[in-house]
Amino acid sequence: MRSVAFRQFLLFGAVGTAGFVVDATVLLALTATTLVGPLAGRVASYLCAATFTWALNRVITFPDRAGRASPAQWARFLGANTVGALANFGIYTWLILEHPLLPGQPVVAVAIGSLSGLAINFTLSRSLVFQAGR
């Protein structure tokens, strides 16, 4: 049983890494226009990345637990990952606002924020969204 959870954790981390690429790419695209600042841009980039990771986790990480895709499951995924997202966004915001070198390097702050929520997001996703027997 532990090996299954460990494998899922590794896959969840790999999907999260791909989500980081989506998050950073969208953030850079939005902030490059200068129409959107790094904080508002991060909200949009996070939603894109969260949707992407929900879809991949259904297929790759938890295929035997995923059940049918639905707006309700997507909403549960976002809701269950709110704690990790708040830690992620809080650390990102703190770094952007308080660290003198990071406002010009938002991707570094995205990476640090993303790592902060990994364990929280995995645990809540596995137990609340992709439950055994679903």
Q: H/E series, N to C? A: HHHHH
Q: Strand pairing plus helix content: what structural class?
A: mainly alpha
Low-confidence parts: none
Number of helices: 5
Shape: elongated
Radius of gyration: 15 Å
Whole-number mean pLDDT? 88
- Please report the total strand number as a whole number: 0
DSSP strand content: under 5%
Distance between the termini: 17 Å
Helix content: over 70%
Described by strand count, sense and barrel closure, the largest sheet is:
none
Query: How many structural domains does the protein architecture include?
Result: 1
Molecular structure report:
Helix 1 (2-32) packs antiparallel against helix 2 (38-61). The protein has 5 helices and no strands. The protein has one domain (2-129). The protein is 79% helix and 0% strand. With 134 residues, it is an all-alpha fold. The protein has helices spanning 2-32, 38-61, 71-80, 82-98, 106-129.
Précis, in short:
The chain has one domain.
